[in-house]
Write a structure and sequence with these properties.
With 234 residues, this protein is mainly α. Helix 2 crosses helix 8.
Length: 234
Amino acid sequence: MLRSSAASGLVLATRKLGSITGTGTRLRRLTDRSTGQEDKRRLILDAAVRVFAHKGYHTSRVGDIAEEAGVAHGLLYHYFRSKEELLETIFRETWRDVLDAVRAVEETDESARDRLAGIAKILLRAWRRDPDLVRVLVREVTRSSHLQERIDEIGAAFAGLERIIARGQQEGEFRSDLDARMASYVFYGALEEILTGWVLGQLEDGDEAIALAEQTVVEVICGGLAADREAAKV
């Protein structure tokens, strides 16, 4: 109640101050301008994804992106200094979304298996939500390893996967004789290879195929991690 009253009082005070000094109108203008700038930035990023997906990063020109976005070349350079910065921003913001998804799943009270299944669904269904973005990430990831080294979110996302597996080991759900970090890379690697198969047209990608891919990854990885599974002889 006190917090609500304080907040209401602050709103009223701000309105009164704005009506006296005119700062309320200026604040709205600044807010509108900031929102407009973010919309324009997003417009350019979305255009870059489409151009990179269909023309390839190395054969695309900044002019192609500006034309796709419907903006002047000069305006594009106001937001991004180069084509490489555009690609790095796409990588960084996408991995930030992946990290947020991993953290959200990690914080649930579900079993480790169900948490890994949730992450598999989020990543594999990205092919349905935004196939152009997946195309860019899959095609350019091996060519731009130097960008990956500069994006902290990638390591943080893998660390989240490792914690989920390690927690499953601590709770007796997963076997403890396997390295959790290595298992997290195997898990993500399987998802990435399936996405690559869809990008290259080597795998069926209908709704049933996507559901089957989710089930297969979880069964193979979690089945191998199961506490009652015996170590394979190598």
